[in-house]
Amino acid sequence: MARSRYNFAEPGRPHFLTCTVVEWLPVFTRQEAVQILFDSWAHLQCHQGLRLYGFVVLENHLRAVAQAGDLPAVWWRFKSYTARKLIDLLEARRAEAVHWRWSSARSYAGGEGLVAVFAGW
Prior knowledge:
This protein is an alpha+beta fold.
């Protein structure tokens, strides 16, 4: 199991996660790197019970709302936020979200998504 200095307040519930690349290197500027991430998520959805509610992948970090039985094993280093903080963040970013190249915003706007998201919440 991966070690983390963070604890999940409510295991088994969705959490807002932020994951950063070591030294903030821009590894997600290449489609191949992002595809590896998407393939990993698809694998975790099939085999580890990952439920992905939404995400955005930026050049040197990613953010996601996700749920799994053992999220610390899925996410190596993360920050977890409360629901109030999540709502504030989503409200602040709603207008520009569909313009992000690699995000789940298209799935919620009726377009074709990049990775399956659980929208039934």
